[in-house]
Amino acid sequence: SAAEKDGHDWFMRKEIYEQPQAVADALLGRRTPSGALQLDEMRLSEQELRDVDKIIVIACGTAFYAGLVAKYAIEHWCRIPVEVELAHEFRYRDPILTANTLVVAISQSGETADTLQAIRHARVQGSRVLAICNTNGSTIPRESDAVIYTHAGPEIGVASTKGFITQLVASYLLGLYLAQVRGTMFGDEITAVVNDLEEMPAHLQTLIDRKDEIYALAAELKDARSVLFLGRHAGYPVALEGALKLKELAYIHAEGFAAGELKHGPIALIEEGLPVFCVVPPRGRDQLHDKMISAIQEIRARGARTLLLVEEDDPAVASYADSVIPLPRVPVLLQPLVAVVPLQLFACELASLLGHDVDQPRNLAKSVTVE
Ligand code: G6P
């Protein structure tokens, strides 16, 4: 009923709007009085965490993209090699697992059969399993050695939104906790990132307050036959997620690419008027931002309609943008948290304008409990 949806037409829309609160809840109680990070359902000893020499993140769907972001953060902060794999591919390829491998299973529902089979396989091989999960007492956390609950609250819309964003938060917390235990970051560096995370609810609210601009864009593009998404570094998984949302909700052909890969194939798809969302990395000491700008110039020269998700007041982009979607200024590793929101709003609105059932897209299930 409308009451259950707080007066919104779709649970998904309501759940997108709940993200500032979901992120705040996901961060609640994670610091001790002395300021150190604590993860109460961690259950793995500090020694076990110090012994970890490889992490394999396994997940399906949107949760897999959260895993891709986790790789960028954990490798950078902890210097532990991280592989990310779709659970169904992992399970049947004879993966190399030892007692020092930490398998991180990301699953909103905690019931996805592919992910469950994968963690059972990992445990039989002697690896430790940590679940990042939104559903208390579900099967995957029950069968894991440790769990970080995401505290997003129940998610009804089949397409994950607040589930995803809190999976990102939990992944960052895991990375920071490992860095704390293993000593790969100083305490004040960890605190600085946690402080940045604590500013996220306000940033997310700013993005949601600007929803009408995104809804207008959805109305303009509702007859598009294909939409592309480009990103690089931590923005690459965001591009994949933006495309997935559009496919599953609006039934429009959509693909996400790593911007650096353009010249190796995808640029052949560019034609006059093709909408391309580009997640522009924040300006920084690295060259990510400038390299993205040159990719944008390349596609624009070939007629693409460029929709740039870019931090506000970036003077470099204006001349290459058909539309600018301003993002709050945040560090590159945390940018997925803010960059995904306009893409969620876009897919939700566009699907709704096309008359589709946003909460129950055709052929999809909230939780896939068969392999
Ligand atoms: C289904 C849902 C997706 C979800 C995926 C993984 O395919 O439609 O929205 O991302 O399962 O679900 P999980 O509960 O394991 O995160």
TrEMBL record:
Top enzyme category: transferase
Catalytic reaction list: D-fructose 6-phosphate + L-glutamine = D-glucosamine 6-phosphate + L-glutamate
Residue stretches in coiled coil: none
Catalytic residues identified in the record: 366 (for fru-6p isomerization activity)
Keyword set includes Repeat: yes
Keywords from the named record: Aminotransferase, Cytoplasm, Glutamine amidotransferase, Repeat, Transferase
Limits of the SIS domain: 45-184, 217-361
Keyword Transferase: yes
Enzyme Commission number(s) from the entry: 2.6.1.16
Location relative to the cell: Cytoplasm
Subunit structure: Homodimer.
Described function: Catalyzes the first step in hexosamine metabolism, converting fructose-6P into glucosamine-6P using glutamine as a nitrogen source.
The protein's name: Glutamine--fructose-6-phosphate aminotransferase [isomerizing]
Organism per entry: Nocardioides bigeumensis
